[in-house]
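Q: Joint fold for the lines below.
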Amino acid sequence: MFYEMFTHKSYEIEKSDIKRLFRLGFNCYELIADGFIRKYLEDREEDDKEIQRNLLQHLETKEHGKMSDEESDESNESDNVKGTETTKIFEEIIRMDLKRTGYDVEISEIERIRKFGVTAKIITTYEFIKKYLTIWNLKDEELDKQILQWRAENTKECKRCEVERLEKEFKIRKEICIECEKDIEKENPPDDKDEVEEDIKGPEIGSSKKPK
Ligand SMILES: [Zn+2]
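A: Joint structure:
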């Protein structure tokens, strides 16, 4: 049934392709990155290694291109079509992602959850699904309340990347997610003085750092 979803859309991607991409280590967010699937379809016949390399490269270019997004020359005309395409693919990806973690959730159910404003990142977490399975048979209104409450208690939005994440993706009492913290660290290597202030003195003690 869901297989049809792909075949009569312009994307000729098949379930096996998505599985393959997962196997190569890409996640559902990467799969819906702009142009990712297109790029994959171009290279589909190549071997795994080649595909992996090309796609990583593609993601990297996207990453660097983020700043000057407005000037991107592709994507304009087909934005609307692409929107629904992406949604469909997205929902299917979520479904497969859930299936991998052992949950068999119907597409219609995922559409329903998405209507309540839950992001894919949250839907595909074990924590959310565990909760959802206990409340899914509630009426919409009540379900909406329960979901909102669960989100208020278990997730928060990172102040930096503005992505809603599970609490466990933050260090305690931090407003910035661990992923962002790592990014920041990468961008400003630790000889930045502001950061070291609390560390008594001396540029680097190194005791807490593992040698590589
Ligand atoms: Zn963040």
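Q: Anything notable?
A: The beta strands are 155-157, 164-166. Residues 158-194 form one domain.
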